[in-house]
Design goal:
The protein has 16 helices and 18 strands. The protein is α/β, with parallel strands linked by helices and about 450 residues long. The protein has two domains: about 1-200, Rossmann fold (3-Layer(aba) Sandwich); about 200-455, NAD(P)-binding Rossmann-like Domain (Rossmann fold, 3-Layer(aba) Sandwich). Helix 9 (about 200-230) packs parallel to helix 12 (about 295-320). The longest helix has 30 residues, at about 200-230. It starts with a strand and ends in an 18-residue tail after the last strand. The structure holds nicotinamide-adenine-dinucleotide. Nicotinamide-adenine-dinucleotide binds near residues 7, 11, 70, 86 and 97.
Length: about 450
């Protein structure tokens, strides 16, 4: 099919490149000229594993191109997808990018007799597609919905594994204005064999929020227990959660082997949830719930637990060295999670603000990020920890567990390491280094041998 994807960010470009790989003819549109130029030269404007390879192949084979002219691309496409950002504006969803992109799409739908479908892929609060988007399209085209199609197809990909997530989806959810709209989207995804749900536009919109709200809730649940354990001598959140996981309703036993569902990865103590989606989606849903007159007491708590976590991490560092005033602290990891260079709402940045607020001088290192405005970023973990009074792991990059900690500890002024992600529990840490794992109570009572997880 001929497809236009408006918005060439993580979702738009991965969608465009993967659809081209599936054999569709795709135009990716963006109003940032440097993004258009990068894509046309086969370069991804951001890091995402496997993306550049697919992108280069699709451009070379003539199945993908980028443009800044939305209306022209839409006019010659059967399907036009809205994949622009829907950020947070003081907690409320900011639909201004979506509105102006919908205006441009509307212009492309004005002429011609061909049936074309507009698909909202951006995450939007329920009612956005059938009120805001529909209203703009009807006004600009002078046509009524039905003459053109309208669908809502939320995206569930995760940064860091976006290409694999797109090409092997768990499910495809399609909200449809009418049967013809849904049929067009079904044709787009016909090569996928996963379950496909065809539903109302609003159910599709709500499904995306339900998914992200659950993930955020699991993270805050684990972090509430982490904070509780940090205040309770003799407790360790890892052992508590491992005990929880062995409930066979959470990790079922099939053919004699225990299955560890991927969702349990969210039920782990850490620095809190961050990134481009969970914080703003939880905020947008809470705002939406208030507008619906029902509120969201559970998600209010989820957000509150998350907001407290960076200060709890900074307090662990402070407790370990006495005072942060004038102390040099190395922060290892800046991205909101490993496998990406995305800094949006990264807990690492919130921790840095807390450390600096308490008087620390911060130097950071991240394998994927070489510069951040207003922050000293070093080229290696060794450079970051040299002369530091303490180091804190803020992103669980696997390479941090592989570092030569014996050498690094000698380069530090004080060999104190706070493992904000519990990623170094099995790393080779020298005896002269103090390792402070999160979620462990003060004066932790040593467990007898054999008390660890039984597989
Ligand atoms: P992004 O900020 O990375 O990309 C958005 C792109 O849209 C930018 O390149 C921007 O220049 C472009 N843009 C803005 N207005 C435009 C216009 N009028 N015309 C053309 N281009 C325009 O955003 P993203 O992370 O890809 O997210 C897009 C949507 O998908 C959001 O609603 C987000 O919540 C949702 N989503 C994101 C992820 C994720 O992991 N990033 C996952 C699932 C869903």
């Amino acid at each position: 099919m001929r497809v236009t994807v408006v918005g060439t960010g993580y979702v738009g470009l991965v969608t465009g490149a993967c659809l081209a790989r599936l054999g569709h003819d795709v135009t990716c549109v963006d109003n940032a000229p440097e993004r258009v130029a990068a894509v046309n030269s086969g370069r991804a404007p951001f890091f995402e594993p496997g993306l550049e390879e697919i992108l280069t192949g699709a451009i070379r084979d003539g199945r993908l191109r980028a443009s800044s002219n939305t209306a022209a691309a839409v006019a010659s496409s059967q399907i036009s997808m809205l994949a622009v950002g829907t950020p947070s504006r003081q907690g409320e969803i900011d639909l201004s990018y979506l509105s102006s992109a919908a205006e441009e799409i509307g212009k492309g739908l004005r002429d011609g007799s061909q049936y074309r479908v507009v698909v909202v892929k951006s995450t939007v609060v329920p009612g956005t597609a059938d009120t805001l988007v529909r209203g703009i399209l009807e006004r600009v085209t002078g046509r009524i919905t039905g003459e053109f199609g309208l669908a809502m197809n939320p995206e569930f990909l995760r940064e860091g594994s976006a290409v694999a997530d797109f090409l092997e989806p768990d499910r495809i959810v399609v909200g449809e204005w009418d049967l013809a709209s849904g049929r067009a989207v079904a044709e787009l995804y016909q090569s996928f064999e996963c379950p496909k749900i065809f539903t109302t536009l609003r159910n599709a919109e709500m499904t995306k929020y339900a998914s992200n709200a659950l993930l955020a809730t699991l993270v805050s649940f684990a972090n509430e227990f982490a904070a509780l354990c940090e205040a309770t001598p003799g407790t360790d959140v890892e052992q508590v959660l491992n005990g929880l996981f062995l409930d066979r309703r959470l990790s079922p036993i099939r053919d004699g082997s225990r299955i560890t569902p991927g969702i349990l990865a969210y039920l782990r103590a850490g620095c809190g949830f961050g990134g481009s989606c969970l914080p703003k989606d939880v905020a947008a849903l809470r705002h939406f719930a208030r507008g619906q007159g029902v509120g969201s007491p559970l998600l209010d708590g989820v957000a509150a637990v998350n907001a407290r976590r960076p200060a709890q991490l900074a307090a662990l560092v402070e407790g370990a060295i006495g005072s942060l005033h004038g102390a040099a602290i190395a922060v290892l990891g800046l991205a909101f999670k490993p496998g990406t260079d995305d800094l949006r709402d990264s807990p690492a940045l919130a921790i840095i603000r807390e450390l600096e607020h308490r008087g620390a001088e911060v130097r950071a290192y991240d394998p994927m990020i070489s510069a951040v405005a207003g922050l000293t970023v070093r080229h290696s973990a060794f450079e970051a920890v040299s002369g530091a009074d303490a180091a804190i792991v803020a992103t669980a990059w696997p390479e941090f567990a592989e570092l030569d900690w014996a050498t690094l500890s000698k380069a530090m002024r004080r060999p104190i390491l706070v493992d904000g992600r519990n990623a170094l529990r099995h790393a080779a840490i020298p005896d002269d280094m103090t390792l402070i794992s999160i979620g462990i109570g003060p004066e932790h009572v040593k467990e007898p041998e054999g008390a660890t997880l039984v597989h």
